[in-house]
């Protein structure tokens, strides 16, 4: 869905653009240079003092760069640029900056505002795992042309092991952090790929066991000391993927006013010129307003989609209960990280402010912010 949104917007309006630097408040990941160019930043997280920039050199051959109007990717909000012509790209971070926990070098290929990518960053942030970011242009997707799997996130491990699907990435790495006797390449065989055709006749790729950690009985008892903890975590991780994600786009673009305000925010942060800003704000907002209405119908949302968002978030808070700081107890579990990753793509937008003001999620959300920013999961490794 994210790629189709990008292609639809790319056809609406195009203009020459110069390199831009965008920093979203809240999520904090950096988008450097043109989004079509392969960019990388060494991170200990997607924001805060943990961000460490790695050197990047990009040479552009003759060709013209075009603006792909800002749009929501997989339910999040972002601004990217489509590319015409040929680009010669150089790949990635300096060897001397390759610091990684457990001996792993991690490279995350992402759309910055995709909620599935945000989930992965939340996991890496919390556990303090350094990683490089390669921002993928959602229209051309040149940065992942080498991959048969054409979605993001993709996580490359040590340059030769490819992990696809946000939940598979998280489950595989969590398994590795607990059981380092197995390599990541061994672990991913526990999540076999299955292809099928959906109700719209499109071939889709799914992964079995993706919410399971591949642990021994003793390890499982250590991670989930209380009865029902494992089942609860898996249930809410799947809920985040199957339901919560689909509430983001319709809420961000609920009205034309909110759509315009959202794109005005992006243009202001991106410091685009007058012509580029016009296309991004007006053409992009109009296109995504229409797309959000289609998503509303597809997922059978209420007339006021805020009500669906409020209910979902309050259901989540109620499931945690009053006696726990997180669903994981005193520390976040994988369900906490998944829900937080999805919700934080709305930061800086009216939908986020309304959610914080009209639900009971604020205290939990602020605790999650601190936990990921401070990499509190490092103590559990």
From TrEMBL:
Keywords: Fatty acid biosynthesis, Fatty acid metabolism, Isomerase, Lipid biosynthesis, Lipid metabolism, Membrane, Prostaglandin biosynthesis, Prostaglandin metabolism, Transmembrane, Transmembrane helix. It catalyses: prostaglandin H2 = (12S)-hydroxy-(5Z,8E,10E)-heptadecatrienoate + malonaldehyde; prostaglandin H2 = prostaglandin E2. It comes from the Eukaryota. GO terms for biological process: prostaglandin biosynthetic process. Its EC number is 5.3.99.3. Its main location: membrane. One of its GO terms (molecular function) is prostaglandin-E synthase activity. Residues 265-381 form the GST C-terminal domain. One of its GO terms (cellular component) is endomembrane system. InterPro entries: GLR_AS, Glutathione-S-Trfase_C-like, Glutathione-S-Trfase_C_sf, Glutathione_S-Trfase, Glutathione_S-Trfase_N, PGES2, PGES2_C, Thioredoxin-like_sf. Pfam families: GST_C_2, GST_N_3. This is Prostaglandin E synthase 2.
């Amino acid at each position: 869905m994210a790629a189709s949104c990008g292609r639809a917007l790319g056809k609406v309006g195009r203009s020459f653009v110069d390199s831009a630097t965008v920093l979203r408040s809240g999520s904090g990941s950096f988008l450097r240079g043109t989004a079509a160019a392969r960019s990388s930043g060494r991170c200990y997280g997607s924001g805060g003092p943990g961000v460490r920039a790695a050197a990047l050199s990009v040479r552009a051959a003759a060709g013209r760069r075009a603006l792909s109007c800002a749009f929501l990717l997989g339910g999040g909000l972002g601004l990217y640029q489509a590319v015409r012509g040929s680009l010669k790209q150089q790949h990635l971070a300096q060897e001397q900056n390759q610091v990684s926990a457990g001996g792993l070098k991690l490279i995350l290929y992402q759309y910055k505002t995709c909620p599935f990518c945000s989930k992965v960053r939340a996991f890496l942030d919390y556990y303090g795992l350094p990683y490089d970011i390669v921002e993928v242009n959602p229209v051309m997707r040149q940065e992942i042309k080498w991959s048969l799997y054409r979605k993001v996130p993709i996580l490359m491990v040590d340059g030769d092991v490819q992990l696809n699907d946000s939940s598979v990435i998280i489950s595989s790495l969590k398994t590795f952090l607990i059981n380092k006797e197995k390599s990541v390449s061994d672990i991913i065989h526990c999540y076999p790929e299955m292809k099928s055709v959906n109700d719209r006749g499109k071939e889709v790729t799914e992964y079995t066991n993706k919410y399971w950690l591949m642990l021994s009985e003793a390890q499982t008892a250590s991670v989930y000391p209380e009865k029902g903890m494992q089942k609860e975590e898996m249930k809410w991780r799947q809920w985040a993927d199957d339901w919560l994600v689909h509430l983001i786009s319709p809420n961000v673009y609920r009205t034309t006013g909110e759509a315009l305000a959202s794109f005005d925010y992006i243009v202001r942060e991106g410091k685009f010129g007058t012509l580029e800003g016009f296309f991004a704000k007006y053409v992009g907002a109009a296109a995504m307003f229409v797309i959000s209405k289609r998503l509303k119908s597809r997922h059978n949302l209420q007339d006021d989609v805020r009500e669906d968002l409020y209910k979902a978030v309050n259901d989540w808070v109620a499931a945690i209960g009053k006696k726990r700081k997180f669903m994981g107890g005193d520390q976040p579990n994988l369900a906490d990280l998944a829900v937080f990753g999805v919700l934080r793509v709305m930061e800086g937008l009216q939908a986020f402010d309304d959610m914080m003001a009209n639900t009971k999620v604020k205290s939990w959300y602020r605790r999650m912010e601190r936990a990921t920013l401070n990499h509190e999961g490092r103590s559990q490794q």
